[in-house]
Amino acid sequence: MMAYVFKRLLLMLPTLFGVLLLTFVVVQFVPGGPVEQYLAEAKAGAGVGAEGGMSYRGAQGVDPKRLEQAKALYGFDKPAPERFWQMLTQFARFDLGTSFFQNRKVSELIWEKLPVSMSLGLWTFFLSYGIAVPLGIAKAVRAGSRFDMVTSVLVLVGFAIPGFVLGVALLVVFGGQLQWFPLRGLVSANWESLSWGAKVTDYLWHIAMPVTAMVMSSFATIAMLTKNAFLEEIRKQYVLTARAKGLPERKVLWKHVMRNALIPIVTGFPAAFIGAFFTGSLLIETQFSLDGLGLLSYESVIRRDYPVVMGTLYLFTLIGLVTKLVSDLCYAWVDPRVTFD
């Protein structure tokens, strides 16, 4: 087991390097880099329109001294290989750099935006699994019944509706016409002055619609996965043998079938739970004016804030690789038949 873990950890290094190298190379050729945007803003909207990163031909006609100052300000006075190596050495120390335009550390920006994305992600995680798993079990036990068919139609309809479309519908109906829920924000403007109970109520009141919009697709996937896993186990020989021995149906389901059927679901818990901290949905956050990681990533790409783009990419990729390893190890933990020899 330890040899397998060591090999996987070693494989993370070239994977991280490849992701960062590919993104860095692409970034060099994206037009409208930070130097061009700085010069454009300095000239009160005069378009620079240059090739970003590697060359600055669009800056022709600009004062050369000012151009060199702008390049030095953002580090583009150095060759690309040197800048890439400097970035790698910073990331090795878990220094994600400083934002070009906000003049703040990338780690501080991520930490500031994280609570919003955590609120969306964790509620989505707990509601999806807490409701979808029991529903999937009930559908498997009553497979082919009217209950199974009706719930399947409802689940598939919910899955077919994109989250951002459902978000628009919720905003129009419940936020605009009926005015039952607020249209924007995670809390009210007077949240700090509210009592403890009122704060909880206010928070839940604001989070209800965005979480509903996000939970539908994952809810449907988990429910159908649970149903299919239970149906597959129920039809196996050991279940027939347990029933033939006269075991109660409840004991057959919850002691024998449950343990095996939930293996593919339980092994997905680490990825789903860790992902809940970083599942900021750009469209949902934009629709409901929630300032989270999704909106931060989008604005960073639009403004060519490369330290934020590369820093968040590095952090999320590293977390994803470690979480994938933990998910694989969970297979051996929940199913003793699985080995990594």
What's the gist of this structure?
By secondary structure, the chain is an all-alpha fold. It is 71% helix and 0% strand. The termini are close together.
Tell me what the structure shows.
By secondary structure, the protein is an all-alpha fold. The chain has two domains: 2-92, no CATH class; 106-334, MetI-like fold (Orthogonal Bundle), CATH 1.10.3720. Helix content is 71%, strand content 0%. The chain is built from 15 helices and no strands. The protein has helices spanning 2-28, 34-42, 64-74, 80-92, 106-141, 146-160, 163-177, 196-234, 237-244, 249-261, 263-266, 269-275, 282-287, 293-302, 306-334. α8 crosses α10 (249-261). The radius of gyration is 26 Å and the shape is globular. The N and C termini lie close together (7 Å). 27% of the residues are buried. The model is unreliable at 44-60 (pLDDT under 50).
Characteristics:
about 350 residues, mainly alpha, MetI-like fold, 2 domains
CATH class of the largest domain: Mainly Alpha
CATH topology of the largest domain: MetI-like fold
Q: Give the CATH architecture of the largest domain.
A: Orthogonal Bundle
SSE sequence, one letter per element:
HHHHHHHHHHHHHHH
Ends apart, CA distance between termini: 7 Å
Output the number of helix runs: 15
Count of individual domains: 2
What characteristic shape results from the CA principal axes?
Answer: globular
CATH superfamily of the largest domain: MetI-like
The helical percent reads over 70%
Which structural class best describes the helix and strand composition?
A: mainly alpha
